């Protein structure tokens, strides 16, 4: 049987093939091309059904659900009621504030650190394999395992905790960690960064290896010091990947969920850990309010779409 | 993975080989190796040895660097009290199924989109890639509602492994990765097979797949780690104690179990992915960068 060698993916069957060299498709008749399309769709059908049922349909369903209310098996349209109820929840604004604080702190710590680590590793000529394995190792731990380690051993508020022991050894004041409302967010960012930075480091390392060495040489001849070379050569040369990972990181950190769930038992001291994703989980699966949770999901989608729009504007302008 | 020593990076190689630069380089290298070992391996050491300490020893200030009186019993307790064998078997079963489902359906789809190019293929690919833009948390509620009452067939997939396997097939990243790899296989090779009368399935099986082993390996490893690391989705769709994954099981027991035992269980739960990583580190790291860089 012939393969459809037509170059255009959306070509309709029956149109003449303007392909430059003879291909099996040129010899194929109309019936054969229909059959080839059928074969193609047969190969696609498994993935297509899964996408349709578990991705495309839930997207629509989520929006529809957010305007409905299901009580005792009866579904009615309620307009914006779910949104009103969700916004009136006293935790709503706290959750957004916490989520933004987490995203912001994670950008300061979790975004700059992997880039600097990658720059450092890229300069080293020894132990490179070992260091890369080390940095990526936490990424392979199940997050629940890693977070129990932080919760019980590292963030133990007494002097028996790992971090407090290190602080004491350095002569610094100890911290209450998750027991303190002001330390909750930094502690969660620290744990999250430790768990997740490996991926970003490896991606930056790959990007750094594509920076042409001549640029550094030229900059050095012009008298640019180490810092100026980073700012004027490294950053501009890797800015597309920097922007992409910033975007991906914002989307990931805005979905903050398992850190508050395990480290802070959900809400944390004085609601200091409640995140938007945790609120979705609370409403949907504990307060029996799937419609409200769907509405909150739609709000989250709109906010993240806003970020993406800003990202696209910024990157489009640069080119 | 090491950079070619002759390539120029931020700092000139010549500068690092002479006098002060050389001393500085070795100092920085030593500091980096020590600090990174402490930062990334230290907590793991703390975890493994901490789980060996007794309840009193873990509460003492300052904490001890080595367990004075090792209690391997904590690990035994974790294994028996949490029924870790069952939890690990469940997770392993879901991970294996996820690998098979993803390899079969995503490979077939990527092959169709790359080589068979049926009508509307471009649109389908675009719609698949669009799902990458949708954060998982946004979909969690409607996905859950879908799984407890599948459209058309009205099946409830709660506690069925299909609730984990099928949604994982809808992985646009895999399709993208595989399609890009298949795109790099020259059409001439395929045309030769067609001339010999091979069917598309035959071509996929005997020409495309053998050439694609590295990328199939990457997809399989990522599928295993994704299932092993996932938490919220299995927690929602596998509510019974008998069907739980290992992370969810430990979380469910964490409240009423001594913390040493919880940590011991966490260590055991982490062993499979860490071992997998140490064996396949090259594939994992190269798969990550090829997918991430050009994506």
Automatic annotation (TrEMBL), chain A:
Signal peptide: none annotated. GO terms for cellular component: plasma membrane. GO terms for biological process: transmembrane transport. Residues 1-32 are annotated as: Disordered. Coiled coil: none annotated. InterPro entries: ABC_transporter_permease, MetI-like, MetI-like_sf. Residues 96-311 form the ABC transmembrane type-1 domain. The chain crosses the membrane at residues 38-57, 100-121, 133-154, 187-207, 238-258, 293-314. Residues 1-11 have a biased composition (Low complexity). Keywords: Cell membrane, Membrane, Transmembrane, Transmembrane helix, Transport. Pfam families: BPD_transp_1 (PF00528). Its main location: membrane. Belongs to the binding-protein-dependent transport system permease family. PANTHER family: ABC TRANSPORTER PERMEASE PROTEIN (PTHR30193), DIACETYLCHITOBIOSE UPTAKE SYSTEM PERMEASE PROTEIN NGCF (PTHR30193:SF41). This is ABC transporter permease. It comes from Micromonospora wenchangensis.
From TrEMBL, chain B:
Residues 88-280 form the ABC transmembrane type-1 domain. InterPro entries: MetI-like (IPR000515), MetI-like_sf (IPR035906). GO terms for cellular component: plasma membrane. The chain crosses the membrane at residues 23-46, 92-113, 120-142, 162-182, 203-228, 248-280. It is a multi-pass membrane protein. Pfam families: BPD_transp_1. Keywords: Cell membrane, Membrane, Transmembrane, Transmembrane helix, Transport. GO terms for biological process: transmembrane transport. It is found in: Cell membrane. Belongs to the binding-protein-dependent transport system permease family. This is ABC transporter permease. It comes from Micromonospora wenchangensis.
């Amino acid at each position: 049987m012939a393969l459809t060698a037509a170059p255009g993916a959306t070509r309709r069957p029956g149109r003449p093939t303007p392909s430059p060299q003879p291909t099996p498709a040129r010899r194929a008749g109309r019936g054969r091309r229909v059959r080839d399309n059928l074969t193609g769709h047969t190969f696609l059908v498994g993935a297509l059904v899964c996408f349709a049922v578990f991705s495309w349909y839930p997207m629509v369903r989520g929006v529809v659900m957010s305007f409905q209310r299901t009580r005792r098996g009866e579904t009615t349209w309620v307009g914006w009621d779910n949104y009103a109820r969700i916004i009136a929840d006293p935790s709503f604004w706290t959750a957004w504030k916490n989520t933004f604080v987490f995203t912001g702190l994670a950008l300061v710590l979790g975004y700059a650190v992997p880039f600097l680590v990658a720059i450092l590793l890229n300069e080293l000529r020894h132990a490179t394999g070992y260091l890369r394995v080390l940095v990526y190792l936490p990424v392979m731990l199940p997050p629940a395992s890693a977070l129990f380690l932080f919760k019980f051993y590292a963030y133990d508020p007494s002097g028996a905790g790992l971090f407090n022991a290190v602080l004491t050894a350095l002569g610094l004041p100890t911290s209450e960690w998750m027991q303190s409302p002001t330390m909750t967010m930094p502690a969660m960012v620290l744990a999250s960064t430790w768990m997740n930075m490996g991926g970003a480091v490896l991606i930056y390392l790959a990007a750094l290896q594509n920076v042409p060495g001549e640029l550094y040489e030229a900059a050095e001849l012009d008298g640019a010091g180490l810092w100026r070379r980073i700012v004027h050569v490294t950053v501009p040369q890797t800015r597309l990947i920097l922007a992409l990972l910033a975007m991906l990181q914002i989307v990931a950190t805005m979905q903050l969920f398992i850190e508050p769930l395990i480290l802070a038992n959900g809400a944390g001291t004085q609601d200091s850990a409640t995140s938007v994703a945790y609120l979705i989980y609370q409403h949907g699966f504990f307060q029996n309010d799937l419609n409200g949770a769907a509405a909150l999901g739609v709000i989250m989608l709109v906010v993240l779409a806003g970020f993406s729009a800003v990202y696209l504007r910024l990157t489009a302008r640069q080119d | 993975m090491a950079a070619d020593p002759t390539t120029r990076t931020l700092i000139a190689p010549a500068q690092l080989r002479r006098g002060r630069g050389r001393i500085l380089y070795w100092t920085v290298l030593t500091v980096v190796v020590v600090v990174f070992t402490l930062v990334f391996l230290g907590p793991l050491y703390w975890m493994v040895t901490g789980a060996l300490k007794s309840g009193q020893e873990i509460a003492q200030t300052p904490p001890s660097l080595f367990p004075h009186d090792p209690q391997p019993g904590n690990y035994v307790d974790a294994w028996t009290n949490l029924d870790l064998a069952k939890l690990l078997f469940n997770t392993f079963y879901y991970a294996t199924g996820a690998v098979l489902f993803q390899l079969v359906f995503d490979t077939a789809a990527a092959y169709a989109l790359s080589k068979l190019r049926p009508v509307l293929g471009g649109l389908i690919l675009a719609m698949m890639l669009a799902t990458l833009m949708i954060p998982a948390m946004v979909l969690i509620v409607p996905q859950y509602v879908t799984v407890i009452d599948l459209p058309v067939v009205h099946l409830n997939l709660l506690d069925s492994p299909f609730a984990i396997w099928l949604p994982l097939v809808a992985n646009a990243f895999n399709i993208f990765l595989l399609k890009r790899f298949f795109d790099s296989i020259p059409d001439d090779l395929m045309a030769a097979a067609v001339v010999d009368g091979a069917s598309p399935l035959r071509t996929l099986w005997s020409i495309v797949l053998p050439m694609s082993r590295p990328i199939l390996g990457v997809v399989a490893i990522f599928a295993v780690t994704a299932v092993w690391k996932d938490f919220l989705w299995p927690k929602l769709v596998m509510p019974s104690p008998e069907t739980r994954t290992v992370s969810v099981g430990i979380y469910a027991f964490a409240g009423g179990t001594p913390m040493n035992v919880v940590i011991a269980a966490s260590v055991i739960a982490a062993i499979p992915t860490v071992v997998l990583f140490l064996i396949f580190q090259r594939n994992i790291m190269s798969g990550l960068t090829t997918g991430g860089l050009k994506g």
